[in-house]
What does this fold into?
Amino acid sequence: TLDLVGLPPSVEDYEAFLADGGGSGEVAVAALAREHVVDRLLASPRFGERWASVWLDLARYADTFGFEKDPNRTIWPWRDWVIRAFNADMPFDQFTVRQIGGDLLPDATTDDLLATAFHRNTQTNTEGGTDDEEYRMAAVIDRVNTTWTTWQATTFGCVQCHAHPYDPYAHEDYYRFLAYFDGTLDCDQGDDFPTIPVPDDPQRCETIAAAFRTLAALRTQVHERGLEAAAAVSDWRPLAVRAASTTGGTLTVAGPGRLEAGGTLPVGVRYDLEIDLPAGTTAIRLAIDLDSGGEEAAPPERGAVVSFVELTLPQRDEPAEAAAGDDRDAAAAGKDRSDRDRTRLEIADVVADIIEGPYDPQASLDRNPQGFGGYPTLDRPRWCVFVLDDPAAVPTDGRVRLSITQSASSNVGTQACTLRRFRLETTADARWMDLARGDDSRRLRADLRDAAAAFATAGGPKVPVLLGQRVEARRVTHVFARGNRLEPAAAVSPALPPAVHPPADMPADRLGMARWLVGESNPLTARVLANRLWAEMFGPGIVETLEDFGSSGARPSHPDLLDHLAVRLVRNHRWSIKRFLREVALSATYGQTAAATPEVVARDPQNRLLARGPRSRLTAEMVRDQALAWSGSMSEKMYGPPVFPPQPEGIWRSVYSGATWKASEGEDRHRRSIYTFVKRTAGYPAMLTFDAPSRDLCTARRLPTNTPLQPLATLNDPMMIELAEGLAERMAAAGASPREQIVFGCRLVTLAPPPETMVDALQALHDAADASPLTVVATALLNLDRAFTR
It folds into this structure.
C-alpha cells in the first residue's frame, strides 16, 4: 500500500485482505487476495499523487523561480497534469513526447501545451542587473542535462566543457543536442513568457487551444502578406534627416539615412528626427544594425526595441529652430508644442522581418513598452516597414517629425533596450497601399486584433510553457569553447551523438528527438524507466546509480533481469506503468518477507541478491502523509494551487520580495504533501530533513538517511504535534480506558494486535505524562521505527 499509493493501509483494509484469504495458508487463495489489493490500489486516485512525486523530483518542480528573490511561479496546473497522467496510465512514450515536444504536435491541445511545462521548471533569475541571455542559456543547458538524466541516466552534463572522460560523447555532441532546445521563445523574463491560460473546465481548455491555433494562424497570414509586399519592393532610398535630437545620451546623423546613438540611453528615451519625406511616400523602412555591423551577434547584444513611433506635421507658427532641433531645449519645447498642436501623419500598418519574442511589432503604434525589435537581446540585424495610411497627407515641402520612443527594458528593468545603430529609408511603391487599404488585409488585421484580445483575456491561471521559435527566427547555436558562452566557436545544427546511432530519417526538431527517446532505435530509455520503477518498489535499483548508466556508474546486479523487464515494459505492457508495477507487486520476489537471519544480512546487507523482501525508509512525503492518515485529518481534495501547512516560524526570510508563509486553514492545512508549496530557497523543513531535494536541479535518486535531525523534526515540528493531537483524539474516541485507547493506536500503526509488552510500555508512558498523556503516546507511535519503514 505504501509503495503503490504512498499511504498506510487502514485496519479495515487489512482485515478485508485477511477475510479475502490474504492470511490463508492456501497459496492460490492468498495470491488472489493480493491481486485484489494491488488492483484496488492501482485504481485509486491516490496512485497518481504518489508516483507524481517521483516525477516532480526529475522535473525539478517548484512553485518559485529560484535565485535571489525567488518569487512565486504559477505552474501547479502542470503538477496536476502529471497526477492525472499517472492515474489515467498514460503510456510512457506519449507521456514523454508531450512533455518534450507537445507544442509541435499537429493541432496541439491545451493539455499538449501544458505538458511542455516540464522544461519550464527551470530557474529564472529576476535579480536586477543580471544578464537575461546568460540565464536563458543556463535554462537551456539545464534542459539538456535533465533530459539525459531522466531518460538516459547519462552524465551528459560533463560534455558541456569537454569530451566525456568515460563515455563516447564528444564536446560538440553536447551543443548539437542543445540546439534542439535553443530555439524556444522563453528568455528569462519575470513574466515567465510564454504562458497559456489553463482553466479548470475541460471545454474551456479546448476553446483556448483553438483560440491559440487561430491566433497563430492569423499572425502568420498577416505576416506573410507583409513579407510578400516587402519582397516586391526594391526602390528604397535613404531618408533625408535634417536634424536629430534625443532626451538622453547622444544621437548623430552618421550618413544618408544613418543614425548612431551613444552615451547614457535611459529607459523611455525618445529620438526626435526632423526629416524630409519625398512626395508620394508610401512607407518608411527602419533597419536596426548590430553594434559590430555584422550579420550575427554571438553572444547576442542587448536588445533594441521601437516602442512607439509617431509622425507629425509642424504647425505654421512653429519656430524653425524647434523644428530643426538645433539644441535640446528648443527641441523639447517644440516637442511639447507638438504634443498639443501637431497633426499626426497616420501609420496604417507595421510589417516586420520576423515575428518572435514577447513583443508584437504592431505595438509600436501604441504607447506601451512593447513594439518592434530584438528583445531582450539582439542577435541579428532587424528591419520593419511603417506603412502610411494616406501618402497624400505628406506636406508638399516634406517637413515631418519622426519621433521614436523606446520604453522597453530587460534585466528586470535595469537595462534599456534602445536603438544604437539604425537606418531609415523610404519608398513610393504603391503596393504598400494595397496592403494597407485592401479589404482582405483590413479584415485579417481586425480578426487578428479580436483573436489577440480574446486570448489575452481568457480565464484561468497562466502557466509557462515551451514554445518553439518560427523557423526564420531561430537562433544560431554555437559550440562554447570550454563551456564558456562568451567564447562561441563553430555553429552547429540539432543532432544526436553518433554513439547512439540515430535513425537517418529522424526529424531535426524536439518532437523528432522526443520520439527517438522512446523509439525502437533507443533501447536505453526502457531500461532506465524499468530500473527506476524497480528501485521505488525494492529500494536500490538493479543499477544502483539511477542517475548514471554509464561507465562511471554502478554495474547492474542482474543485467539479464533488467533486459527482461525493459522488453516486457515496451512489448508486453506497451509502456504502461500500472501494468508493469502490477507485475512487480504480484511477483514472488516482491512478496517475500523482509525478515532475515543475521547470517543472510551479513552476507548481503543491501539485499542485492533479492533473497528477502524489500525493506526501505519512507520518503519525506510518506512520513507526513502517513501521519495525516493516522490522525484522521487528511483531506481527500485533489489538485489546485499549492497549500501552506504549518511550519516553524522564521523559515521564510525572503529578500526584497517580502513573501511570508501564512499557514493554510481548513482542509488545505491537511492536504497531501505533494500539494505543499515548494520554495527553492527555503524548502519545507520537515521534508528537507527526510531527504527531499530543494528542486533546484533534476534529482534522479534520493539518498535515504537516518539522522538525529529526523526525530527532532517529528517530535517538535508544529505540523507533527498537531497530527499527534489528531491521532490522540481518535484513540480517545475508540475506547473507554487508556489501555483500550492505546491498543487502538497500536493497531492503526502496526495493523496487527500489539503484544502486551508494547501496550505495557506505552501505558507506563501515558501514566507518567503530566499533561495530554494520549498525545504523548500518539507522538511515540508516530516515532516508532516501523513508522519510517516500508
Q: What stands out?
A: Residues 202-232 form the longest helix (31 residues). The chain is about 40% helix and 15% strand. The CA atoms of residues 546 and 701 lie 6 Å apart. Confidence is low (pLDDT under 50) at residues 320-326.
